[in-house]
């Protein structure tokens, strides 16, 4: 296009449209702008593009532990887990033992993210996740205690934004455990809406530590749900900063600001404890009224005054992308290991319960969802360790992994029955069940995350052109703004037209002609093709929705949530394909891969259906349905035969089961519940062939008053089995009896030491 045509297009087409856009586009608040600018666009951008570059994903290095990180896992982490008695912690002491607190401090569990030159471990995101996950399979309360200082808190904020003086003073102290940090964000009147916190600080001058006219801030706040708050020595605080006398600038309202305050500062009130559903990690309220702090207690100093929301948005990804997915995946792995074994050991109607089809359904979900959780956790960690800060993806894994944990643990409780609902040292899943609401609440409530953040933030941040169009509207130079808008607009138009054509052709041919990377396993090629097809459909629906609904889409949270579901399951599907390749594409893993891919495709289809069924413009909805699904909805959920294969792998010792449950802590004590289960599984499997030999004899053995051992003795005397076989059956029966035994207590619910 020549300059004359360019000028014509700018004058008669782009300029009027830009004027219209400015009128209809809702003005973004400062907090919204900072949230959008936080982090980086990564694979989410590829999914929004409608034609994801799979080679880019598959070339990402597989996450792994360094020699030092592996030594820490095998040494201090294992030692810590062996020190933990979760029943004593949660039911009897309501706190970690003093020696455990000291061990955590002395061995650097609070310093995994702190650089080595400050005395920290400087571990990778993958190592951080592995540590939290392994501890969580032993004690969730301890895992939360360890994860908080390594997630959103003073350490992370200092590393990213602190002054050199702040880093040099605080980071070595945090690394040694001399300081216990917490971060106070949530206020009673502003839960998930952190931008509306009422806590405030006024810039002023006052006396401090004997000095007069010290420039500082007079703070008033009231916070709650602050993990480690009751025992913290260093309080990170978020508040709104005001400068009425213009002492540090020319603005009165500076915005959200973050400061570090030693908890022994005069006026700081560390309150009592909350009691989060028997998870006894330290959590509680704190407050302060007219607390004066010097200006250099702002994280990053006076230059970072008012920059707190951006700082928080950029650092939130650790909690969302590392810690909570680690807890959720740990629960899934623990359920897969323990409930899989229990289903083989526990018998009803003289058959392992894991072979009943109803139980198989639950086991298939447990195994399939755990595979998805581990895959998406690993992929996200790989991105973090390669320099990405995927803010949208962190919201995806936070929401979907904690929700998957909810489903997995609920299924586990159904299978365990009475053994699941009776709390005690032998109950493996009880505390995980109680922890579900905690996981789905922290770091942004799940309802909010799904309905407002995943697509609401992703559509603007990750779309190839929308953010560029919005950026052009805020450009001060009018000529430059128009040129930027024109480039983005016409790029967007070309993108929309080509995407519409591709979407229809993909649907018409069932994605048959879509190219896949050459090194992809032939059994997974169809999943790559269908993922590309659904990515194109997602990109098309996103553009249509924004064109027709505009800014009102932000308020239509149910529609936004369904679009977020499509994006999320596309990511989870991508993660499964990448994970399968990273783990070596074992033939035995194929049932899990098939189950996970089919599950995600069916969930994508369900989300599309819900969106189109409720889209307010019915003619457009009907047209979109025809373009996306010209032959109707073809994705079916995993069938019964596939579910049977997944369940069978969970109830049998195998390399696949070991890979799926890798990272679960197995205690050294042979009398621990999980150790008893694994031992019983091996003994029961070994005894199965012998049990078949005595099955007909069992039916003819009539004396009802005789026990199992008497029946074995009779079978031995009759020559049905030999002495070695009798021993195998006795060992299996004893192991089974230990596994199915449920904790009982004295009348006042104190532990029965002899039970």
In short:
The protein is α+β, with helices and mostly antiparallel strands and 755 residues long. The chain has 29 helices and nine strands.
Helix/strand layout:
Blueprint (H helix, E strand, L loop, with lengths): L2 H22 L5 H8 L5 H7 L4 H5 L8 H17 L2 H8 L4 H9 L18 H12 L3 H8 L6 H8 L2 H13 L4 E4 L15 E9 L2 E17 L6 E9 L10 E10 L5 E3 L12 E12 L13 H8 L1 H29 L1 E2 L2 E2 L4 H29 L5 H26 L1 H4 L8 H12 L4 H17 L3 H8 L4 H31 L16 H25 L7 H26 L7 H25 L3 H11 L11 H11 L4 H6 L12 H28 L7 H10 L5 H18 L15
Parallel strand pairs: 1-4, 2-4
Antiparallel strand pairs: 2-3, 3-7, 4-5, 6-7, 8-9
Helix pairs in contact: 1-20, 2-12, 3-18, 5-8, 8-9, 8-13, 13-14, 13-15, 13-27, 14-15, 14-22, 14-23, 14-25, 15-17, 15-18, 15-22, 18-22, 19-20, 20-21, 21-22, 21-23, 22-23, 23-24, 23-25, 27-29, 28-29
What key phrases describe this protein's structure?
755 residues, alpha+beta, Butyryl-Coa Dehydrogenase, subunit A, domain 1, Butyryl-CoA Dehydrogenase, subunit A, domain 2, 5 domains, 7-stranded mixed beta sheet, two-stranded antiparallel ribbon, 29 helices, 9 strands
Description:
The chain is an alpha+beta fold. It folds into five domains: 28-55 and 465-648, no CATH class; 67-176, Acyl-CoA dehydrogenase/oxidase, N-terminal domain (Butyryl-Coa Dehydrogenase, subunit A, domain 1); 182-315, Beta Barrel (Butyryl-CoA Dehydrogenase, subunit A, domain 2), CATH 2.40.110.10; 316-449, Butyryl-CoA Dehydrogenase, subunit A, domain 3; 675-740, no CATH class. It contains 29 helices and nine strands. The chain has helices spanning 3-24, 30-37, 43-49, 54-58, 67-83, 86-93, 98-106, 125-136, 140-147, 154-161, 164-176, 308-315, 317-345, 357-385, 391-416, 418-421, 430-441, 446-462, 466-473, 478-508, 525-549, 557-582, 590-614, 618-628, 640-650, 655-660, 673-700, 708-717, 723-740; strands at 181-184, 200-208, 211-227, 234-242, 253-262, 268-270, 283-294, 347-348, 351-352. Strands 1, 2, 3, 4, 5, 6 and 7 form a seven-stranded mixed β-sheet that branches. A two-stranded antiparallel sheet has the order 8-9. The model has no long low-confidence stretch (mean pLDDT 90).
């Amino acid at each position: 296009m020549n300059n004359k045509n360019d000028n014509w297009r700018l004058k008669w087409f782009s300029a009027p449209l830009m004027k219209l856009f400015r009128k209809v586009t809702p003005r973004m608040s400062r907090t919204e702008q900072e949230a959008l600018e936080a982090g980086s666009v990564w694979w989410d951008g590829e999914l929004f593009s409608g034609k994801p570059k799979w080679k880019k994903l598959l070339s990402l290095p597989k996450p792994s532990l360094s020699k030092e990180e592996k030594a820490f896992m095998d040494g201090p982490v294992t030692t810590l887990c062996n020190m933990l008695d979760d029943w004593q912690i949660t039911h009897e002491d309501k706190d970690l033992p003093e020696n455990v607190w000291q061990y955590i401090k002395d061995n650097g569990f609070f310093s995994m993210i702190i650089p080595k030159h400050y005395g920290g471990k400087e571990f990778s995101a993958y190592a951080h996740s592995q540590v939290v996950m392994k501890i969580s399979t032993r004690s969730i309360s301890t895992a939360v205690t360890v994860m908080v200082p390594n997630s959103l808190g003073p350490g992370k904020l200092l590393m990213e934004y602190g002054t050199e003086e702040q880093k040099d003073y605080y980071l070595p102290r945090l690394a040694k455990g001399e300081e216990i940090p917490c971060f106070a964000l949530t206020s009673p009147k502003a839960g998930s809406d952190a931008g509306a916190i009422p806590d405030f600080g006024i810039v002023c001058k006052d006396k401090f530590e004997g000095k007069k006219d010290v420039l500082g801030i007079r703070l008033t706040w009231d916070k709650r749900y602050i993990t480690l708050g009751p025992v913290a020595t260093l309080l990170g605080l978020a508040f709104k900063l005001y400068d009425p006398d213009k002492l540090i600038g020319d603005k009165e309202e500076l915005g959200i600001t973050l400061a570090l305050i030693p908890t022994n500062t005069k006026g700081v009130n560390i309150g009592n404890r909350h009691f989060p559903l028997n998870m006894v990690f330290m959590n509680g309220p704190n407050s302060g009224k007219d607390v004066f702090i010097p200006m250099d207690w702002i994280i990053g100093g006076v230059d970072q005054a008012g920059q707190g929301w951006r700082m928080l948005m950029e650092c939130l990804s650790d909690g969302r992308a590392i810690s909570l997915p680690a807890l959720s995946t740990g629960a899934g792995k623990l359920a897969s290991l323990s409930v899989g074994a229990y289903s083989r050991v526990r018998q009803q109607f003289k058959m392992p319960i894991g072979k009943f089809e109803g139980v198989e359904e639950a086991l298939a979900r447990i195994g399939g969802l755990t595979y998805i959780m581990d895959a998406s956790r690993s992929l996200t960690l790989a991105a973090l360790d390669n320099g990405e800060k995927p803010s949208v993806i962190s919201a995806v894994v936070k929401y979907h992994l904690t929700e998957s944990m909810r489903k997995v643990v609920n299924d586990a409780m159904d299978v365990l029955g009475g053994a699941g609902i009776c709390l005690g040292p032998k109950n493996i899943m009880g505390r995980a069940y109680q922890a579900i609401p905690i996981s789905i609440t922290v770091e942004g409530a799940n309802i909010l995350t799904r309905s407002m953040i995943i697509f609401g933030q992703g559509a603007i941040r990750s779309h190839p052109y929308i953010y560029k169009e919005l950026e052009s509207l805020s450009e001060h130079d009018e000529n430059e703004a128009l040129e930027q808008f024109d480039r983005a607009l016409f790029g967007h138009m070309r993108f929309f037209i080509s995407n519409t054509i591709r979407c229809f052709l993909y649907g018409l041919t069932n994605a048959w002609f879509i190219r896949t990377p050459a090194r992809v396993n032939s059994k997974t090629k169809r999943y790559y093709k269908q993922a590309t097809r659904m990515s194109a459909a997602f990109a098309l629906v996103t553009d249509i929705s924004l064109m027709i609904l505009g800014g009102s889409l932000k308020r239509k949270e149910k529609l936004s949530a369904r679009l977020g579901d499509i994006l999320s399951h596309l990511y989870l599907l991508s993660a499964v394909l990448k994970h399968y390749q990273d783990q070596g594409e074992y033939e035995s893993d194929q049932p899990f891969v098939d189950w996970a891919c089919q599950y995600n495709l069916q969930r994508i289809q369900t989300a599309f259906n819900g969106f189109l069924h409720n889209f307010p413009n019915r003619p457009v909805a009907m047209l979109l349905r025809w373009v996306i699904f010209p032959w109707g909805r073809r994705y079916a959920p995993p069938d019964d035969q596939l579910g049977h294969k997944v369940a069978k792998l969970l109830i049998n010792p195998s390399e696949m089961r070991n890979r799926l449950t890798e990272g679960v802590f197995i205690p050294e004590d042979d009398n621990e519940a999980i150790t008893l289960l694994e031992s019983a599984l091996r003994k029961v499997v070994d005894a199965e062939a012998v049990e078949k030999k005595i099955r007909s004899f069992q039916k003819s053995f009539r004396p009802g008053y005789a026990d199992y051992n008497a029946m074995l003795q009779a079978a031995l005397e009759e020559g049905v089995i030999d002495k070695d076989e009798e021993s195998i059956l006795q060992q299996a029966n004893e192991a089974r009896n230990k596994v199915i035994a449920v904790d009982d207590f004295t009348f006042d619910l104190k532990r029965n030491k002899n039970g």
